[in-house]
Each structure stands twice: as C-alpha cells, then as structure tokens.
Design brief:
Blueprint (H helix, E strand, L loop, with lengths): L14 H13 L6 H17 L6 H10 L1 H15 L7 H18 L2 H30 L3 H20 L5 E2 L3 H8 L4 H28 L7 H23 L6 H19 L1 H11 L1 H6 L4 H27 L1 E2 L6 H13 L11 H20 L4 H29 L2
Antiparallel strand pairs: 1-2
C-alpha cells in the first residue's frame, strides 16, 4: 500500500499487522534472536541428555557467573562492530586492568581501598581507549593494526606489572565478595518485577511517541508478546537461581550494564549516530554527525568495559596472572557479539543479543567441562558455531540488500 506525499503512513495495530510484520522481517532476513534461541535450546537439550546435572540450579548459577566477563567485553565489542571496526585489544586491556586492580588492592586493604583500586583500574582502561581511539581517528591507522599492536603491548605491560611472582592472588575481601555474594530471594523477585515494568514502559512509550508523530509503529500485539516473553524468561531465571543461592551479584552487574548500554544504543542520540556511522560513514558525515568524536567515544567505551570485565574476572578467579586476558577471552567475546547477531559489516546489532551469544558460548564451555571433554573438542564446536553465525550474517545481509532494507 502506498501513500501520497504528506499523508501519514498507516500503523498496524491488529493481529493481521502482527503476523504480516513478522513475515516481512523474516522474508527480508531480519532473523533477530531466532537462530540464537534455537541454538541455545538444542545445546541445553543435548547436554542435559549427556549429563543430567547440566540444568541443575547450581550448575546454571555457575554458568551465569562464568559468562560475566565474556558478556561484559561483548558489550564493548558490539559497539565497535556497529561502527564496522574491530578491537583486538579488549582482552589484553582487561588483563592489564585486572593486574592494576589486584596489585593496588594488595597494598590498600578494606572496602575503601578496593573502591579506589576499582576506579583506577577502570580509568586505566579508559586511558587506553583514548589513546587507541585518537590513533585510529587522527592518524588514520586502521583499527585492526592499532588494536593488534596494543594487544601485544598490553600483554607486555601485564607481565611487567606481575613481575617474577607471575600470579598475584586477590586477598581483599571486598573484591572477592563481588563474585561470592548472592542476592536474597525477595530482592531477586523485586528486581524481576522492576525489569518487566521498565521494559513495558519503555516499549509502549516508544510506540506511543512514534504513533503521535505519524510514524509506522510496531503492532501492539507484537509488543505485548515481547513483554509477556520478558516476564516469563525473567521469572524462570529468578526462580531457578533462587533454588540455589539467589542471583549472583556479578550477574546483576552484567545485567545492569546490558540494560544501560542497550538503552544507550536504542534510545539516545549517540546510539543512533553509532548505527548511522556503521551503516554509511560518508552519509553520516554529510548529515552532520561528528564521525571522529563518535569513533573515539566507542573505543573509549569498549576499553572501559574491558576494564570492568577484567575486574569481574579477577574477582571470580581470585587472582591476576599472565594468562589473564589471553586470546581465548578475546575470541569468545568477539564470537559472543557475532553469534548474538551483530553484523561484521557494521550498522546492525544489539547489546541484548550479545548477552544471548555469550550464553550460547558459556553453555558449550560449561557442558564440555561437565563431560570432561578435551580442549580440542571444545574449540572445534565453538569454531563451528562461530562459522555458522558468520555465515548466517552474510546470507541474511544479502537478503536484506535484495529486499532494500
């Protein structure tokens, strides 16, 4: 159906609009989380058959904590990929930040010392992000080279920080409490209710604003399905984790980061500029977007989140070592973003989906550990999943181009 100039585009608010909207999205290659959800269901069924303890509340709680550092880094990776760039230094940045944190916290005891050490560790990551972002934008060296060189250099800095000891344990109880603290059951349910309410408010509010401006809005039935889905998933998660000890504090930190930066990407001017720049840099520049400022900001954001991931990882592992921030963490965090649906070609992706991708990879690693599978098998499966995800991204991109989306 076409409209004459100046006429408002009709909105779909009935059941027919719901199903036709979904059909159009699938036909144009906009698969969303469907491949990730299917993969997650298959992985969980297979591992539950192979080991009946996989879906136990205790193991699922461990699974959630295992993906905290990967998920945090994947948020930063998502922003960089949305630009159509790459950052190969995030794992090394997390290692340096973890090393700085542990060394300072060893000298500064007590909660206050831990807080100061955390702040300095995050600032160190931000400083690295400023350096890399300016090098890429002002000098014009490709981000691949800058961050690859940075990755090598930061690993050298980490070795210098740790010295002859090699491994420095976390002895500050405040830092250890980040990964060992669990929320009481009632607080978990309260946070679940707040999450669903905020999601419903933001979703329905966005639809109302689009409707008032005469823009095409998502069918109300589709939005209600999303809200109900979020409510169901949130309830299952809280119920399952409460059957063990409750929601881990580190997991709550990750969820808060996902919601905060998910809001940034979808509901702020900065987020729209990131998508626009990744979609077409020249068009974004001509539209008046400050391209260099956006790029530098994204690299700062990615490095800062890498520092937070390093802090969470050091708390969970209880130490900083030369292995902190190695290639595995880098590849897993990038793979999590890609598996979640973030396009390697820029301009398309979601922070929320990156969390789902981290859950897929974490499930594979956790299941393999339960089965005592060799590392070779683990790498083969993770590599296959990544290859499939990139293949799906490539094929759906072709369909989107053909459909004019």
């Amino acid at each position: 159906m076409s409209t004459v100039p100046g006429q408002k585009e009709p909105t779909s608010t009935n059941d027919e609009g719901l199903f036709s909207s979904i059909k159009v999205r699938l036909a144009s290659g906009d698969l969303g989380l469907i491949p990730v959800i299917i993969a997650l269901i298959v992985i969980w069924i297979v591992f539950q058959i192979l080991n009946p303890h996989f879906l136990d509340p205790r193991n699922l709680s461990n699974l959630v904590q295992q993906i905290v550092d990967i998920g945090t880094l994947a948020i930063g990776v998502t922003f960089v990929l949305l630009l159509g760039e790459i950052d190969l230094s995030i794992a090394a940045v997390s290692g340096v930040s973890a090393g700085i944190l542990v060394i300072l916290a060893t000298s500064w005891t007590g909660p206050f010392g831990a807080i100061i050490a955390i702040i300095i560790a995050i600032l160190s990551g931000i400083a690295i992000g400023v350096f890399q972002g300016l090098w890429v934008t002002l000098i014009g060296v490709p981000a691949f080279i800058v961050t690859l060189a940075g990755s090598l250099g930061y690993q050298g800095i980490l070795l210098a920080l740790l010295g002859d000891t090699g491994t420095v344990p976390v002895i500050n109880p405040t830092l250890l409490a980040i990964s060992s603290t669990y929320l009481p059951g009632w607080l978990g349910w309260l946070l679940a209710a707040i999450t669903v309410a905020v999601f419903a408010w933001a979703t329905l509010g966005q639809r109302q604003r689009r409707t008032q401006k005469g823009l095409k809005a998502t069918p109300i039935n589709q939005l209600m399905l999303r809200i109900i889905g979020v409510a169901i998933i949130t309830s299952i998660v809280v119920l399952t984790l409460n059957l063990y000890k409750g929601i881990p504090l580190s997991a709550l930190i990750l969820i808060l980061l996902v919601f905060i930066f998910g809001f940034v990407t979808q509901s702020t001017l900065f987020g729209r500029h990131v998508y626009a720049l990744g979609g077409n840099a020249e068009a974004a520049r001509r539209a008046g977007i400050k391209v260099k400022w956006v790029k530098v900001s994204v690299f700062i954001l990615a490095a800062g989140l890498a520092a937070v991931g390093g802090i969470l990882g050091a708390s969970r592992l209880g130490a900083a070592s030369p292995a902190t921030g190695t290639g595995d963490l880098l590849l897993l965090s990038i793979a999590a973003a890609i598996i979640g649906g973030t396009s390697l070609f820029g301009g398309r992706g979601s922070v929320y989906n990156a969390l789902a991708g981290a859950l897929v990879l974490g499930s594979v690693e956790n299941g393999m550990d339960l089965l005592s599978a060799p590392s070779s098998t683990k790498y083969l499966i993770e590599g296959a999943i990544l290859l499939i995800a990139v293949t799906i991204d490539t094929l759906t991109r072709r369909r989107r181009i053909k459909a004019g989306r």
